[in-house]
Design brief:
By secondary structure, the chain is mainly alpha-helical. It has helices spanning 5-24, 28-52, 56-68.
Length: 75
């Protein structure tokens, strides 16, 4: 089953958190965790893009934008 866009956002958020942990404590374990999270995100992006008939690049950038520059929530 293809990942949803929300899945991609969550996976990118996990990859960003793993990167922050690696930056704070650059050892082998945190680096491996970051790489694993990033690899999981990339694989999900490819799967989602193929399932939706979209460009992998566009899907990846949209997910990263959603994580790094979220739209403000309206009440």
């Amino acid at each position: 089953m293809a990942h949803t866009f929300e899945d991609l956002v969550n996976l990118e958020r996990l990859a960003e958190e793993a990167h922050a942990a690696y930056t704070a404590n650059p050892d082998g374990d945190t680096r491996a965790a970051w790489r694993d999270a990033a690899d999981t995100f990339q694989a999900a992006v490819v799967e989602h893009a193929e399932a939706e008939g979209k460009s992998r690049y566009e899907v990846e950038m949209a997910a990263k934008k959603a994580v790094r520059h979220p739209e403000p929530e309206t009440a």
